C-alpha cells in the first residue's frame, strides 16, 4: 500500500502489543519497521500474524494487498481502512 | 452458488457407479462425474461452508463459459493464463478452457509481505514463456496482473466475473484428442527461467486413474484439501484426480490454512474426510499449534482419515512422528500415513505407499552417497545415520529404474542412483523449450533428477542428483550439510545452502551460505566457527562458511530451497555476504 498518512497512535499501540511475541529479532518496533528485513517474517509467520491481526480487529485482510505491505505503517493503514469500511 | 448452501455435496453418489479415471479426456471425466450428486465445496477461513459446486453445476457453467470463449474468437490451442485462487471461478474457467480446447496456464498467487517486484517478475516470466493472449483472475488481483501484463505482451486482461457477461456463442464444445494438450503447468523450477510442463489429456487421465487405484479410491471416499491450485499436488491431486474418481472434495484456501491450520483437521473431522495430502510442514504446523493448547481441547475426531498423504518435499520422519503422537488421542491412526513421490513432469504421482500400512522408515549409514549404498543401521540411537521414509510402489502401468550415477547401469536393492520413470504419464516436454526437454527425456524415460534406492518394492528418495557435490573425489550430499546446519540451535529449515564455488585457480571450494540474524560481530564470528566445526564433525568435510542476510536465499514455488539459483545469485553478487555488505 502506497497509502500516505499517519498511523493513529491507537493502531500503532495495538500492533506493538500484537508484534511482541513475533519479535524474535528484538528490534525496536517503529511504524517503519519492515516485516521481512527487520523482523525476518517468512510466509508462514506472515500468515500467522495476519490471523492475529484479524482476530484483534475482527476483520478479514484480503490477500491481494500482501505484496504492497512492507512495514508496520503499511499494514496499520490498511487495517484502519478496512475497519472504517466495515463500519460503513 | 448464489445462496449460502446448508450442506456440502454428499460423499457418495446415489446410483452412479464409481469409475476411477481413465476417461478419453478431461471433459469426458467431467461429463461422467456430472451424472451424479458429488462435487466441490468451499469453506471459509473459520471452516464454515461458503459455496458448493457440484460436478453437474461445474460442467454446465464451464460449457456455457466455453461457448463464450469461442464466441470471443479464442481458438483451440491458444493459451489463457488463469490466476489459480482457491475459488469456484478458477475451477469453472479451467474447465471452460477444456470444453473450448483452449490451454489454461495456472499462475501463482502472492504469499508474502512486500515482495511485489519478485511476484510480478515471476508472473511475467511465466507469461513470456507460455505466451497466452489473455489472462484472467479474481478482480482484486487485476492491478498486480496488469503490471505483469504490461511487460509480458498480453492482449487482454480481465476478471473472472467479466467473462460471465460475454455473449454465449452457439455450437458444440471441443472434443480433445488424447494427445492434445490439456494444460501447461509451471512446476517448482527456477522462477527466472520457468519451464512449463506440457500435460496431454492422455497423460493426465492415465495418471489420475493410476493414482486413484494406488490410494484405493472407493465408495465412502471424501477428500479435503488446502493445497494451492498453482501447485501440481493441489491442481492434479485434489482438483482433477478427485473429480476423475467422482470424489466429493472440501476446500480450504491455502492462506486460510496458513492462518488457522487446525481448520484443516476440523473439516476432516466434521465431514468424515478420508483422504488428504500435505508436505511435512503442514502436519508440523498442526502439531505445533495443538501443543500450545490443553490436551483434548481441539475437539476433532480423525478416525475416518484413511490416507494421510505426504509429498511435495523430502519427507521428514520426525515431524510425521510428532503429528502421529499428537493426534493419536484424537483418533488418528499413524497407519494412515502414506509416503508418496511425484513430480509435475509425470503429471503428478509416481509412487504411493500401500493404503493403511503407515510409514516405512529406513535408517541408513551417512556415507550412503559416497559409497552408493544404503547400508542399514540399527535405529536405536547407537549409530548416527539418516532416516528416510519409503515413498511407496510405482503406480500401475508405469516403470521406475534406479540407475548408476556414473555409467547408467540399472541398480538393485539398496544401491543409490538416479531415478528414472517411464510410462503414459510422462510429459511430452517443456513448452517451447526443446533444450530443457532433451535434457529431461531420454529414450522415453524421464530423468527425474532425484536420487533414490530400492527398499523391497518401495522406492526411497534421498535427494537431488543435480545438486550433488564432489569434494576431493568424494560425493557429498548438500542436503546432509544443510540438514546439519539447520539442526543447530536457532537455525531453521531453508537457512543454509551448500554449494561448490570455483576460485580463480580452478579449485573447487565447498561453501555453505548461512542466513544470519545476529547483528553483533562476535556473534557472527561464533556462528561461522560453530557451523564449520559441526559440518566437519557430521559430514567430514571442511567448508567455507559465508553469512548472508536473513531471507536472502531463494526458494522454489513449493518452498524448497532453490540451491542452484542460490549459487548463481551468490556468484553474480545478487546475494552478498554480510561482511561484504557491511
Provide tags for this entry.
heterodimer, A: about 90 residues, mainly alpha, 3 helices, about 0% strand, globular, B: about 575 residues, alpha/beta, Rossmann fold, GMP Synthetase, Chain A, domain 3, 3 domains, five-stranded mixed sheet, 27 strands
Written account of the structure:
- The complex is a heterodimer of chains A (88) and B (582).
- By secondary structure, chain A is an all-alpha fold.
- Chain A has a domain at 37-88.
- Helices cover 48% and strands 0% of the residues of chain A.
- By secondary structure, chain B is α/β, with parallel strands linked by helices.
- Chain B has 18 helices and 27 strands.
- The longest helix of chain B is centred in the C-terminal third of the chain and has 18 residues, at 521-538.
- The radius of gyration of chain B is 24 Å and the shape is globular.
- The relative contact order of chain B is 0.09.
- Classes of the chains: A mainly alpha (88), B alpha/beta (582).
- The interface between A and B is medium-sized, with 29 and 28 residues.
Quick structural summary:
The complex is a heterodimer of chains A (88) and B (582). With 88 residues, chain A is mainly α.
Amino acid at each position: 500500500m502506497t497509502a500516505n498518512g499517519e498511523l493513529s497512535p491507537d493502531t500503532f499501540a495495538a500492533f506493538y502489543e500484537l508484534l511482541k511475541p513475533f519479535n524474535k529479532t528484538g528490534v525496536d518496533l517503529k511504524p517503519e519497521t519492515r516485516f521481512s528485513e527487520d523482523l525476518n517474517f517468512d510466509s508462514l509467520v506472515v500468515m500467522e500474524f495476519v490471523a492475529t491481526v484479524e482476530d484483534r480487529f475482527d476483520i478479514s485482510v484480503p490477500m491481494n494487498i500482501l505484496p504492497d505491505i512492507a512495514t508496520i505503517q503499511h499494514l496499520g493503514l490498511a487495517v484502519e481502512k478496512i475497519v472504517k469500511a466495515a463500519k460503513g | 452458488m448464489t445462496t449460502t448452501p446448508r450442506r456440502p455435496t454428499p460423499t457418495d453418489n446415489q446410483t452412479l457407479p464409481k469409475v476411477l479415471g481413465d476417461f478419453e479426456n478431461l471433459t469426458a471425466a467431467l461429463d461422467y462425474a456430472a451424472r451424479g450428486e458429488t462435487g466441490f465445496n468451499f469453506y471459509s477461513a473459520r471452516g464454515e461452508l461458503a459455496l458448493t459446486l457440484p460436478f453437474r453445476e461445474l460442467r454446465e457453467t464451464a460449457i456455457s463459459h466455453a461457448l463464450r470463449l469461442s464466441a470471443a474468437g479464442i481458438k483451440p490451442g491458444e493459451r489463457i493464463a488463469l490466476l489459480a485462487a482457491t475459488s469456484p471461478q478458477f475451477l469453472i474457467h479451467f474447465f471452460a478452457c477444456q470444453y473450448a480446447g483452449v490451454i489454461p496456464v495456472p499462475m501463482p498467487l502472492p504469499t508474502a509481505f512486500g515482495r511485489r517486484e519478485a511476484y510480478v517478475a515471476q508472473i511475467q516470466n511465466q507469461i513470456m514463456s507460455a505466451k497466452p493472449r489473455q489472462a484472467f483472475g479474481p478482480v482484486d488481483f487485476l492491478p498486480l496482473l496488469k503490471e505483469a501484463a504490461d511487460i509480458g505482451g498480453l492482449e487482454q486482461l480481465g476478471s473472472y466475473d467479466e467473462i460471465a457477461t460475454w455473449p454465449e456463442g452457439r455450437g458444440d464444445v471441443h472434443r480433445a484428442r488424447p494427445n492434445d494438450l490439456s494444460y501447461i503447468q509451471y512446476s517448482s523450477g527456477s522462477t527466472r527461467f520457468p519451464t512449463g510442463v506440457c500435460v496431454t489429456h492422455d497423460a493426465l487421465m492415465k495418471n489420475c486413474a493410476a493414482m486413484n487405484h494406488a490410494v484405493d479410491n472407493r465408495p465412502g471416499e471424501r477428500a479435503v484439501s488446502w493445497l494451492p491450485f498453482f501447485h501440481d499436488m493441489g491442481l492434479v491431486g485434489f482438483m482433477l484426480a478427485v473429480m476423475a474418481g467422482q470424489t466429493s472434495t472440501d476446500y480450504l484456501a491455502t492462506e486460510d490454512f496458513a492462518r488457522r491450520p487446525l481448520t484443516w483437521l476440523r473439516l476432516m473431522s466434521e465431514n468424515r474426510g478420508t483422504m488428504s495430502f500435505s508436505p511435512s510442514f503442514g502436519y508440523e504446523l498442526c502439531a505445533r499449534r495443538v501443543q500450545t493448547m490443553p490436551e483434548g481441547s481441539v475437539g476433532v475426531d480423525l478416525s475416518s482419515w484413511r490416507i494421510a498423504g505426504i509429498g511435495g518435499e523430502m519427507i521428514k520422519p520426525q515431524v510425521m512422528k510428532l503429528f502421529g503422537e499428537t493426534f493419536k488421542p484424537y483418533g488418528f491412526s499413524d497407519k494412515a500415513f502414506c509416503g508418496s513421490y511425484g513430480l509435475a513432469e509425470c503429471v503428478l504421482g509416481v509412487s504411493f505407499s500401500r493404503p493403511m500400512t503407515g510409514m516405512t522408515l529406513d535408517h541408513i549409514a551417512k556415507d550412503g552417497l559416497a559409497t552408493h549404498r544404503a547400508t542399514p543401521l540399527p535405529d536405536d540411537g547407537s549409530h548416527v545415520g539418516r532416516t528416510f521414509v519409503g515413498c511407496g510402489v510405482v503406480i500401475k502401468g508405469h516403470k521406475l529404474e534406479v540407475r548408476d550415477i556414473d555409467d547408467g547401469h540399472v541398480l538393485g536393492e539398496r544401491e543409490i542412483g538416479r531415478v528414472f520413470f517411464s510410462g503414459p504419464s510422462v510429459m511430452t516436454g517443456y513448452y517451447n523449450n526443446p533444450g530443457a526437454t532433451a535434457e529431461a527425456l531420454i529414450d522415453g524415460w524421464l530423468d527425474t533428477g532425484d536420487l533414490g534406492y530400492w527398499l523391497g518394492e518401495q522406492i526411497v528418495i534421498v535427494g537431488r542428483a543435480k545438486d550433488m557435490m564432489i569434494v576431493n573425489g568424494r560425493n557429498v550430499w548438500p542436503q546432509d550439510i544443510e540438514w546439519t546446519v539447520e539442526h543447530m540451535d536457532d537455525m531453521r529449515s531453508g537457512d543454509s545452502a551448500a554449494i561448490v564455488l570455483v576460485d580463480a585457480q580452478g579449485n573447487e571450494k565447498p561453501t555453505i551460505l548461512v542466513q544470519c540474524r545476529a547483528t553483533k560481530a562476535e556473534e557472527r564470528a561464533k556462528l561461522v566457527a560453530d557451523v564449520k566445526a559441526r559440518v566437519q564433525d557430521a559430514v567430514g568435510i571442511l567448508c567455507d562458511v559465508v553469512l548472508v542476510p536473513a531471507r536472502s536465499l531463494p526458494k522454489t514455488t513449493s518452498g524448497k530451497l532453490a540451491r542452484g539459483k542460490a549459487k548463481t545469485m551468490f556468484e553474480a553478487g545478487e546475494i552478498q555476504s554480510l561482511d561484504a555488505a557491511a
